[in-house]
Amino acid sequence: MITFLIILLIVACVALGLFVLVQNPKGGGLATGGGTSNMFGVQRTGDVLEKGSWVLLAVIVVLTLSITTIAKTNGGAAATGNTEIQDRLNKMPSPSPLGGGATNSAAPAKPATADTTKK
Fold first, then answer.
1. What's the CA gap between 85 and 3, in Å, rounded?
2. pTM of the model
3. Other beta carbons within 10 Å of 51
4. How far apart are CA 95 and CA 73, in angstroms?
5. Kind and range of the H or E element at 47?
6. Each residue's pLDDT tens digit, 31-47
C-alpha cells in the first residue's frame, strides 16, 4: 500500500512540475495565439493550468500526510521490515565502552613518569 502511494506521489510531483513549466510566467500559459481567443470553446488555458497546479499541490499534500501516517502506525509494507532489522540489532552484542574489543586479563602497565621540569 505504501509503495503504491509513493508511486502516486512521484507521478503527482512530475505532473506538477510539467504544469508549472508549461505556464507562461506572465499568466498567458498555452494561450499564445491572441490571448483571448475562444477557439473550440476553450477559455483561457492559463486558468486551467493554474487550477490544475493547485489541485496537484493538494494531492501531493494529502499523499504525503497519508504516507507519513501509515508509516508511523506500522501499517505499511515498510514497517514489516523494521521488526526484522530490530531483531537483528537486539541479537548483536553491545560494543565495549572503551573500545578495543579484546579483554586483557593482565594488569595494565603503569604509565611512565612524565618529566615535569620546564626546559
1. 19
2. 0.50
3. 11
4. 31
5. helix 45-72
6. 555 555 555 555 566 68
